[in-house]
Design a protein that fits this description.
Length: 375
């Protein structure tokens, strides 16, 4: 039990550190993406942290297996490098027993991954879709920030306001620049510039929205040409484009696992197999990591790290590819993703027992040679 606790602690501590680093890297990249969308007015800045929180289970279900894989490689690689594994082997620690000991913390990680994959991640996807659905219903003025030029979703309009009321209805010091396109939408006809002392949003009975500008000017023309037109107005109405509201929430990643069970839909079967594959992935990569962690002190602990990562990426890429083939009906669901797990599990077991197999083969060869000599 002392050895078991020692090995489990080494694996779990390294696993936690690696997973935390991977999570920070991935979350930072995704947060920057959402932050850029908020800066363009595509998202309300107030929902950024909500979106990241709901996306967290989806990130963790992929990060934890990789974190465990790297954690075992780094932890056991250090033990081999410092000859601790040699001492354990001399005390009777076989590769089989080492694998059994390592599967215990791996089972804990697999339970967490199963919980994330089968329950929390689909719920998080559903909540994110609902938030994005509500964001699609916003106009450009619902996400407008005073003192900053903001581009419309289509990229044809730039809006600026010096001041904005708390309810977002009243604007002060308004500037709007809009491209005038041809009916086909592929040729620019010029630019219209609107400036106004103040403005406000107005919602009509039919649901259409107007921006009512007061005390301002409108300039129409083409850049570089002198034939422009200037109009002074006391009150001017601008029709705001209708929001491009997303359709019904039908993302299969957000479908509850209970609904996927027993479904004849190929997309649903592919999604169910993917969710079940993630906990299985934890056990298979544990076998691979134990096999690949063995290092020669002269070679260093990081020599096998790159080949191991390439093997892991090949494993994950094959799972994703087979998921797509099941989705398209090119691979029977009965075969599905399971053969990929079986293939890499066989590779891991072969790597673990190759040394004992080689020794048995050499012993048999020596015995045959000895028998021939006696004859």
């Amino acid at each position: 039990m002392i050895i078991f606790r020692y090995l489990s602690r080494e694996v779990l501590v390294t696993f936690s550190a690696v997973s935390a680093v991977l999570l920070v890297i991935i979350m930072s990249g995704r947060f920057i993406k959402y932050l850029a969308q908020a800066a363009q007015g595509l998202l309300d800045p107030g929902v950024l942290f909500m979106i990241m929180g709901f996306r967290l289970p989806g990130f963790l279900q992929l990060i934890l297996p990789l974190g465990l894989f790297l954690g075992i490689l780094l932890a056991y690689g250090r033990l081999y490098l410092e000859s601790e594994m040699t001492v354990l082997a001399a005390a009777g620690m076989s590769r089989k027993r080492l694998l059994v000991y390592t599967l215990a913390p791996a089972a804990l990680v697999a339970v967490v991954v199963a919980w994330l994959s089968l329950s929390l991640a689909p719920q998080g996807v559903t909540q994110v879709e609902r938030i994005l659905y509500s964001q699609d219903a916003l106009t450009e003025f619902d996400t407008l920030v005073p003192g900053r030029f903001q581009e419309l979703k289509s990229g044809s309009r730039v809006t600026y306001t010096e001041a904005l009321s708390e309810d977002g209805r009243e604007l002060g010091g308004v500037f709007i620049s809009e491209l005038r396109l041809s009916r086909s939408g592929n040729k620019e006809r010029g630019i219209s510039v609107l400036v106004a002392e103040k403005g406000r949003q107005e919602i009509r009975a039919d649901g259409s929205r107007y921006l009512i500008l007061e005390n301002g000017y409108r300039y129409d023309g083409k850049p570089g040409q002198a034939d422009y037109r200037a109009i002074q107005y006391d009150r001017y109405g601008v029709l705001l484009p209708k929001p491009e509201v997303a359709g019904e929430l039908n993302e299969r990643e957000g479908i509850a696992t209970a609904r996927l069970l027993g479904s004849d839909n190929l997309r649903h079967q592919a999604e169910l197999q993917w969710r079940l594959s993630l906990p299985l992935l934890v056990f298979v990569v544990t076998v691979l990591a134990v096999a690949l962690a063995r290092a020669n002190p002269r070679q260093g602990r990081f020599l096998k790290l790159l080949p191991a990562i390439l093997l892991y990426m090949t494993y994950l890429a094959l799972l994703i590819a087979m998921r797509g083939r099941v989705d398209e009906g090119k691979l029977p669901p009965a075969l599905g993703l399971w053969w990929v797990h079986a293939l890499f599990l066989a590779i891991g077991l072969l790597l673990i027992y190759r040394e004992s197999l080689r020794l048995k083969w050499m012993a048999r060869r020596v015995a045959k040679e000895a028998a021939r000599g006696q004859a």
